[in-house]
Write a structure and sequence with these properties.
The protein is mostly beta strands. It has one domain. Helix content is 12%, strand content 44%. It has a four-stranded antiparallel β-sheet with strand order 1-2-3-4, with no helix packed on it. Strand 1 and strand 2 form a beta hairpin. The mean pLDDT is 93.
């Protein structure tokens, strides 16, 4: 489970990485320190991201 504490304490690394929840919610952490929430789902057998 992705918690608020985990999301706030995520540190940037050499490459971008993603922390994921079990329901399709991801937190992408970029080397610049920017964090983006991504929700992945499938529609007509194709992956969609919002």
């Amino acid at each position: 489970m992705l918690t608020e504490t985990t999301a706030r304490s995520a540190e940037p690394g050499q490459k971008s990485y993603m922390l994921r929840d079990e329901q399709g919610l991801y937190l992408q952490v970029n080397p610049s320190g920017c964090k983006y929430w991504i929700f992945r789902y499938w529609e007509d057998k194709k992956e969609q991201r919002t």
